[in-house]
Each structure stands twice: as C-alpha cells, then as structure tokens.
Description:
The chain is built from six helices and two strands, in the order H-H-E-E-H-H-H-H. It is mainly α. The chain folds into two domains: 40 residues; 70 residues, Cytochrome c-like domain (Cytochrome Bc1 Complex, Chain D, domain 2). Helix 5 crosses helix 6. The longest helix is centred in the first third of the chain and has 33 residues. The radius of gyration is 34 Å and the shape is elongated. Bound molecules: heme C. Heme C (HEC) binds next to helix 3, helix 4 and helix 5.
Amino acid sequence: MNQDNKDKFEKVDRLLKTSIFFLAIATLLLVFLIFDPTFSVFERQGENSFAEIDENKIENGIHVKTGLKDAPGLQVVINNCTNCHSAKLVIQNRMNEERWNATIRWMQKTQNLWELGENQKIIVDYLTVNYPVEEKGRRAPLSEVEWYELEQ
Ligand code: HEC
C-alpha cells in the first residue's frame, strides 16, 4: 500500500468508526424513547411532584390527607396535631373548649406535646367550631311510627 492509499484507508476507517458511534447513540436513544417516551425518569421530585399536590389537596371541603375540615386554623392543626397520631383520633373526640384545653395539657404533661403558645387558641377554636359537641345525649324518640297489632 502506498502512502496515498494508506491515507484514504485511514480516512474511510475513521468515517466508519464515527458513523458506528453515532448509530449506537441513536439506537440507544430510540430504545429509551420506546420504553420511556415522556422521559419520566428525569422528572424532578420537587415542588410539582404529585405527592406534594396531594399533601394540600382539598376535596368537598375536606383536607384529603388527614380528613380534617377545611376551615380557618386547619394548617395549624395539621402542623401540631397530626404528628404523633392520626387526625382521626382528633376528629372522633368532640369536646368543649375547656375539655380540649385539658386534653392538650394532658398530652403536654404525659405525651411530650410541645407548648402551643398562641396556636392553642387557634386549634381549640378550630375544633370547637368545626367539631362541636353534639348536645343530644340519646337518640331522639321515634316519630311517625306505624304500630300494628300482633296476631296470635
Ligand atoms: C407529641 C405527640 C402528640 C402530639 C403532637 C399531639 N398528640 Fe394527641 N395524643 C398523643 C398521644 C401519645 C395520645 C394517646 C394515644 C393513645 O391513647 O393511643 C394522644 C391522644 C389524643 C387524644 C385522645 C385523648 C383521649 O382521651 O383518648 C386526642 C383527642 C388528641 N390526642 C388530640 C390532639 C390534638 C388536638 C393535638 C394538637 C394540639 C394533638 N393531639 C397533638 C400525642 C400527641
């Protein structure tokens, strides 16, 4: 092989290698596109992730994640009252202001609940307004009952 042919050969060789290189990249990209057309692998788990949206989702006036009613003070209640136990435990208990303050004092004394400061009033207001004590101690008497004679 003379020098001229050798140069040509090297040129073609380089061209071929470069082509194969790009073809390989294109193939990889194509395979990736087939398996993940939306490039979801690269989506950031940041502010726009679904988990974050669910966290604050309100549906029909109910904060979906905790089941608490959407009303003034909701966020303070979420921040202070759903860390140790489910919000269900809070919702289940219908108390007046005095008993809520006593329950909070009890948790502070025995369950390591922190000082709530001025948030305590916001929380107790939220609870007494949205989950008032039901005054009826017993079920109301039945009305419009159709009585019938027992037959022997
Ligand atoms: C530091 C942890 C902690 C935080 C924060 C907390 N609690 Fe509790 N709470 C407890 C524990 C522990 C219990 C007992 C759970 C049990 O009996 O299973 C409890 C029980 C309760 C009960 C049931 C009491 C009873 O007599 O059965 C209610 C109601 C309650 N918490 C409401 C709240 C409210 C409202 C807040 C927000 C101010 C709150 N909790 C915040 C720890 C906490």
